[in-house]
Each structure stands twice: as structure tokens, then as C-alpha cells.
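Structural prep section.
Before we set up the soaks we want a predicted structure of the protein with adenosine-5'-diphosphate in place, mainly to decide which crystallisation condition to try first. Input record follows.
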Amino acid sequence: MRILSGVQSSGKLHIGNYYGALRQFVHLQDEGEAYYFIANYHALTTVRDPKLALELTRDAATAYLALGLDPKKAILFRQSDVREVLELYWILGTVTPVANLERAHSYKDKIAKGISPDFGLFAYPVLMAADILLYSADFVPVGKDQVQHIEFARDWAVKFNTQYVPGYDPADPDGEERGHAPGILKLPAARIQESTAVVPGIDGQKMSKSYGNTIDLFGDEKEVKKRIMSIKTDSTPVEAPKPTTDSPLYDLLKLMLPESEFHDVDATWKAGGKGYGEYKKKLLEAYHATFGPARQRHAELVADPGELERILQDGANRAREEAARLMDKVRRAVGIP
Ligand code: ADP
Ligand code: TRP
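Run finished without errors. Recording the C-alpha cells verbatim:
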């Protein structure tokens, strides 16, 4: 089983990225052949400062490793180190209906916010599909917001195979029945971790770097504390039971505390008698207990940039081999010498 996923290097990573994505990546490295990359081409749709683009790419790779990604088990690489992805992106674009791109949630959301779209933003899902299909991924672990993109990748893979693979039957994509040919592009499936599908930010909206409501994974200690202490709460008095809905503090405690500890917190939360300040302190402790070791490893990696580069180069070499094999078939199928 081949697992593949990417994170866009467009900002500092936060705990929403961890619970929604990175944590699964790290676990999944034991379940199959894992390909993880830093989507630094995608990041150019939002990051226009070259120094920052380089820095965020490095940051994202460091974060993966600090959080437990083992380069001996998983292949870690930069999207831009395998240029074949841009070739597949173009070819895929020739079978991509514009109507699909026009109804992409991520695109529509940005338009709704008044962002005037460029082609890169519009074509974002095509590059993402190329990322996935280039490595013949079986599973793509992602947050809920990315599921539509995976569905697009499947749809366009079917379109490509139908157009270019003689004997391909969409009802039998792996060509298991007699007389059917397997597709060149393998159909991927999304894999979502339902229980933590949306991590709330300190203001109660979805945690997102674009809302400025994040708790960062490797942020400055004082800033992390400040963020946690400013989590939005209501005016329920100390002695009263606290509401469990619409409470980012409650949700974050549930996410970050070990189950037995959360059990106790849950009991006092519902009984009353403790103020929100105390719960925030508890959350801060949980943050350090959870991410302390990773923060330590992160600091070590930052101090040794040569090691990081070696890991990324090795990952790129392995990824490139796989990409070359697939592109060979794709070029032959479409008639590119
Ligand atoms: P952001 O919303 O901060 O811009 P990205 O869109 O770069 O984050 O998301 C990177 C990954 O992290 C995606 O797989 C996304 O689904 C996941 N993710 C981001 N924010 C959250 C969240 N609040 N809850 C759960 N998963 C999230
Ligand atoms: N769009 C993804 C995100 O914002 C990042 C990404 C790019 C990705 N290419 C991918 C994720 C391929 C999975 C597979 O999170």
C-alpha cells in the first residue's frame, strides 16, 4: 500500500495541521510505503517573497522530522525537486474540465473572500492531482477540506485512462477482469481522521493561519502561552457548570489531554467550581507535555541544516525514480517523445 501526502509550506505549522494531518502521516509510515512532500510549488500561490518561500519549505521539512517522521521508513522530499510533476500537471490539465475547477471549494472560498484569482490558484487542484498520480498513491491522508481535491484526482485519472489506455474499463480500473487493461494512472482514495477532523482556533473558528487564530507547533514559548491564555470563553461564572458546545477551550482540552486526564477535567467542567483560567493553564501544560520532545528535536535540526538537506536530497532521488517510471508510460500513451 502506498500512502502519499503533502503540506503546503505557506506558513508556520500549527496544532490544527498536526491533529488534522501530520500526526496521521507519522503513524502511517509504519503501515505502508509512505511518500511525504513539502508542496512548495503550491505555496507560491500565496507566498511571494523568495526568502520566505525558502525558509517555510525548510521549516515544514524540519517539522515533519521533529514530529517523528523517520526518513528510513518514509520518503520525505520537496515537491519542486521532482520537476516531472509539472509535466504531468500540464498533461492532466488537458483532460480537466474547467467546470470542475470552477466548483472547487478552496477556489470558491477564496473568491468569496474577495481575492482576485490568478491562474495558479485556479489550477491548484490539477497540480495536486499530479502530485498524487505521479507516485501511484493508494491512500492520501488529509483533512476534510481536501477531500474534494482527492475526488478530482480520481475523476481525472479515470478520464485520462479512458482516453489513453486501450481496453481500460472505468468499472474495473485495475484491469482485474479478462480483456480489461489496468489504468496508467492509479485511482487514489482519501483517508480522513474523523475524530479530529476540524481543530478549532483560539477564536472558535477553524484553526487556520489565514485567520490568525493558531497555536503554533514550534512557536516562541511566550507567544504560545499568550495564545492559549486568550482562547475565547464566555462569561459563565466560576462556580457554574460550563457549556461544552461552542467552546474552543473544551474542544482543545479534549484533543490534547490523555483520555484519563480529560475524564477528570470533563467532570469538573460539567460540575462547575473552576474558572476558565485554570483550564487554560491545564491546556498549556498539555501542550508542553505533548510537543516538548518534538520542540527539542526541532531545535536540534535547526542547528544542523546540512543533515536536513541530505535527508531531502535522498528523498528526492527516491521519488524521482518512481516519477520517471510513470512519466515514461504517460508520455508514450499521449504521444510525447
Ligand atoms: P491553514 O488552514 O492553516 O492554511 P492548510 O490549509 O495549509 O492550513 O492545511 C494543511 C493541512 O492541515 C491540511 O491537510 C488540512 O486539512 C489540515 N488542517 C489545517 N487546519 C486544520 C484544522 N483546523 N483542523 C484540522 N485539520 C486542519
Ligand atoms: N492542498 C494540500 C493542503 O493544503 C497540500 C497538498 C498539495 C497535498 N498536494 C498534495 C496534500 C497532494 C495531499 C496530496 O493541505
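Observations: Residues 305-334 form the longest helix (30 residues).
Flagged for discussion at group meeting.
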